[in-house]
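Dear support,

I submitted the protein below through the web form. The confirmation email said the job was done, but the results page showed an empty box. After a refresh the structure appeared. I'm attaching both so you can tell me whether what I see now is the final result or a partial one.
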Amino acid sequence: MKVKTVVVGPLGTNCYIVSGDAGGTAMVIDPGEDPLDIIDALEENKLKVKAIVLTHGHFDHIQAAGAVKKATGADVYAQPADHVPGTDKPLTDGLKLTVGGEEFRVITTPGHSQGSCSLVGEGAVFCGDLLFRDSVGRTDFEGGSMPELLASLERLKELPDDTIVFPGHGPDTTIGREKMMNPFMTRGGC
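What the results page shows now:
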């Protein structure tokens, strides 16, 4: 699996372009802003977008989805609970997406928003604003819930420790590191 990170917008959202070793198809995850930067990265790597996936419906993760769709013709996927305008297909728990020979499974991980979800691939998870290095996403926005977020973290704790975590903002980390260092992953009951 190849992952290219394009940091977009004033909030520094990580937009991921994920492709496999088996060819020129890709998935764009969280095209928050700066569509020209995202499209340039796709063209530079000669990638055909198969899916545009939104981990949740907050503005800093979705604003360029329409422009990327227009440029690539790819469908936009989002979890229905976040009511994202322009969604073509729903992300449901257990849905599998295959891109460039790589398979990704959707798991619903609410807490940051009602419709937050994560994509789990071989050795990697793309989790939006659920889990960050040493922290978690906010739960004080409409639809946020700390009890739901903690339950969602339990789902991520089931992944192997060497699983790379690709968060919505900031640097990559691993499940194992977060189990040891992140107070939201180490506290009792989580």
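Response: this is the final, complete result; the empty box was a page-load delay. DSSP finds six helices and 14 strands in the chain.
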